[in-house]
């Protein structure tokens, strides 16, 4: 038994498909299938029920795959410890970002990170919060940049910045002449929102419901840019994080809220006992300096 056999088993358990698992492991399908068969022989157990349509793991297979995942994470931890002692700001680092942060923050931070830390290899992943958390827990990601939510206490975090929300209006909207908006001004208005799965949706909904506004349930956007275009088409109003607001926009009106302004805290989140904390500290300082309001 070797670590590669465990990697093959874990990959197959994740995708439930021999060809896709082989592609994920960068080996041929016969190689992966053959090594798993050898692993079954060595353990004296049937780990997988092979059918023409799908791969079904036995109870033993599920338990052993779960243990294999833990072993691989421990091995990765050992390698990370060695790398951290050798050079904490070098080697690969896998960072996950949510879609409402990535396109607006990455252009501001990637160039200075590469300039200041030339030996650090950035691998960047854009996914919704649920998938990012799963990747962090399973050791596939080293840290995340996302909106900190109450259910993330099991992770360590470093706050990077607090981002205000701006009320986004079409031209000639009745609220466009207000110097500052108060939440109560939203009462009775229908607000456009992102689709389910975006943490920004839940945060914006919280503010809107408190103000007495209602969600326009006839449409849910897949991105902030879609929201902007829908507002420009006079289909409703919305809340946008400040970094997503263009510096010059002749189609829309953006209004600030009175204090306390609604907004969100963006944090760098990592596994509580990660040995890469010195690297995260330096990255956080750089990002804090680059993102200011």
SSE diagram, text form:
Layout: H1 3-15, H2 18-25, H3 29-43, E1 48-50, E2 55-57, H4 59-86, E3 91-97, H5 102-116, E4 120-126, H6 129-137, E5 143-147, E6 155-170, E7 190-194, H7 199-211, E8 214-221, H8 224-232, E9 238-241, E10 252-255, E11 263-271, H9 277-290
Parallel strand pairs: 3-4, 3-5, 7-8
Antiparallel strand pairs: 1-2, 5-11, 6-9, 6-10, 6-11
Helix pairs in contact: 1-2, 1-4, 2-3, 5-9
Pfam family, one: LysR_substrate
GO molecular function: DNA binding; DNA-binding transcription factor activity
Protein name: LysR family hydrogen peroxide-inducible transcriptional activator
Describe the protein in words.
The protein is α/β, with parallel strands linked by helices and 293 residues long. It folds into three domains: 81 residues, Winged helix-like DNA-binding domain superfamily/Winged helix DNA-binding domain (Arc Repressor Mutant, subunit A), CATH 1.10.10.10; 98 residues, Periplasmic binding protein-like II (D-Maltodextrin-Binding Protein, domain 2, 3-Layer(aba) Sandwich), CATH 3.40.190; 103 residues, D-Maltodextrin-Binding Protein, domain 2. Strands 3, 4, 5, 6, 9, 10 and 11 form a seven-stranded mixed beta sheet that branches. A two-stranded antiparallel sheet has the order 1-2. Strand 7, helix 7 and strand 8 form a beta-alpha-beta unit. Helix 1 packs across helix 2, helix 2 crosses helix 3 and helix 5 packs across helix 9. The radius of gyration is 23 Å and the shape is elongated. The relative contact order is 0.14. The mean pLDDT is 90. Keywords: Activator, DNA-binding, Transcription, Transcription regulation. Pfam families: HTH_1, LysR_substrate. InterPro entries: LysR_HTH_N, LysR_subst-bd, WH-like_DNA-bd_sf, WH_DNA-bd_sf.
């Amino acid at each position: 038994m070797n670590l590669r056999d465990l990697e093959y088993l874990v990959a197959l358990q994740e995708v439930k498909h021999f060809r896709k698992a082989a592609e994920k492991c960068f080996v041929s399908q016969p190689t992966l299938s053959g090594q798993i068969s050898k692993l079954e022989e060595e353990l004296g157990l049937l780990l997988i029920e092979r059918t023409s349509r799908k791969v079904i793991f036995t109870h033993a297979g599920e338990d052993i795959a779960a243990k294999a995942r833990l072993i691989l994470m421990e091995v990765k931890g050992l390698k990370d410890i060695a790398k951290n002692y050798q050079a904490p700001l070098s080697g690969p680092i896998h960072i996950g970002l949510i879609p409402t942060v990535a396109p607006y923050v990455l252009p501001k931070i990637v160039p200075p990170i590469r300039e200041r830390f030339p030996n650090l290899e950035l691998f960047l992943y854009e996914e919704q919060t649920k998938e990012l958390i799963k990747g962090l827990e399973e050791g596939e990601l080293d840290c995340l940049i996302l909106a900190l939510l109450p259910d993330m206490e099991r992770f360590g975090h470093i706050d990077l910045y607090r981002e205000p929300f701006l009320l986004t209006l079409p031209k000639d909207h009745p609220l466009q002449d207000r110097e500052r908006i108060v939440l109560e001004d939203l009462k009775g208005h229908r607000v456009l929102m992102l689709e389910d799965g975006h943490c920004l949706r839940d945060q914006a909904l919280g503010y809107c419901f408190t103000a007495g506004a209602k969600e326009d349930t006839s449409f849910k956007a897949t991105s902030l840019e879609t929201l902007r275009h829908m507002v420009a088409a006079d289909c409703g109003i919305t809340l946008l994080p400040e970094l997503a607001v263009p510096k010059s926009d002749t189609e829309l009106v953006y209004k600030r809220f009175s204090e306390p302004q609604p907004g969100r805290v963006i944090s760098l989140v990592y596994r509580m006992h990660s040995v890469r904390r010195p690297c995260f500290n330096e990255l956080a300082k750089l990002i804090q300096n680059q993102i200011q309001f």
